[in-house]
Amino acid sequence: MTDTTAAPVTVPGTPATARLLAEAARAVDAPDLVLAVSRNGVRTVHTGGSAEPGPVPRELMAYELGSASKPYAGLLLARLVAQGRVRYEDRAADLLAPGFPVHPAVRRITLRHLLTHTSGLPGLPADFYPQAVPRWSTDPYGGYPADRVVRAFLRARPRHRPGTRWHYSNFAVSVLGHTLAAATGTPWEVLLHQQVLAPLGLDATRVRPGPDGADAVGHRRDGTPVPALDTGGFTAAGAVRATPLDLLTFLEAHTEGAAGSPTDSSLATALTEVTRPVLRRGLRHAHTHTLTWFQHPTPYGPVLFHAGATLGQQAFLGFRPGTGLAVAATATRRVHRADTFVATVYGLLTEAR
Prior knowledge:
The chain has helices at about 15-25, 70-80, 90-95, 105, 110-115, 130, 145-155, 170-185, 190-195, 235-240, 245-250, 265-275, 340-350, and strands spanning about 10, 35-40, 40-50, 65, 205, 240, 280, 285-290, 295, 305-310, 315-320, 325-330. The chain is an alpha+beta fold. The radius of gyration is 20 Å and the shape is globular.
C-alpha cells in the first residue's frame, strides 16, 4: 500500500473518476505515482507516493517509458509510410547498408517484421550480455552504441524465418530506428521530433534527460535511487521520456472525439493505421497485435496498450479506440514479481465504463 504521508493530489476531472484513481493508487507502492485518465478530452490526474513531493509537481516531471516508447516508433513508421517515404515491406538491410553481404534471412527482414517482433531476431544481440552483466543494475545499455547495434544486425543469423514467429525484440525495434534514420538521412531524435512530437504538441517529451529537476528519479525495490537510463544504441526501443500530461496528449490523438485531432492527412492516416490488428499469436491465436500495440477484448470493446519498465521506473499507456478513453500511468519503483502496478492500471482501462 502507498504511504500517503505525502498528501496525494488530484486534478479534478469527474468526481467518479477521481474516486476511482484514488482507490487504485492505494494498491500501488512507489515513491512517486501518477495515474491519469482522459475521457473525451476531460482529464483527471491523481498523484501520490511514499516520497515527499519535490519542487516540480509529479505530473509535470518526465518519466522513463522504457518499452512503452515503442508506440512512438510505430507511429513514426506509419507516418513515413503514409508520406510515401518508406514502405512496410522495404527490406531493412537494403536501406541500412545497400550492397552489404548479409545472411539470406536477414536480407528478407522488412520494416514491418522489425516493428511487429516477427523478424526472427533475438530480444537482444548475443554479444550484448558480456558487456552488460557487470553493470546490469546500473547501466547495461550505455556501453552498446548505435554502430554496434547495426553491426550486430548485419551479421545476425535469425532464429526463425522472418514473418513466421512472434518474439519480443528490443534489438529489432532498435534496428528499425537506425534504418529509418538511414533511409531519411535524418537522426532518429530529429526524425521523431519532426514527425511525431512536434505535430502532436508533445513539448515535454524527449529521448534524453532534461535539465536538473525536470526528470523523475527511479528507485530499486528497496527504495535506493538509480541513475537516469542511458539506452545506448537502443534508442528507438526504449529512450522516450515524457510527462504524464504529454502521455495523455499522445493517447488522446489515438482516440476519436478528443479535442485537437490532427488535421495533417498523413498523421491522421498513421494514427488510424497503428490501431488496426495485423497479427495473432499464441494458443488458439488468442493474442492480437496492431503494428505497435497489444490488443485485448473487453465487454466495452477492444483495448490497446503497452507497458514499459527501466531500472527504476514503470509506465503504462492504453486507450479504447472510438470511445475517447485513455489511461496513462507512471511509477518510480523498479518492477518486481509481486508488483501490482500494471495490473492495477490495466484494470482502470478495462473496467472503467
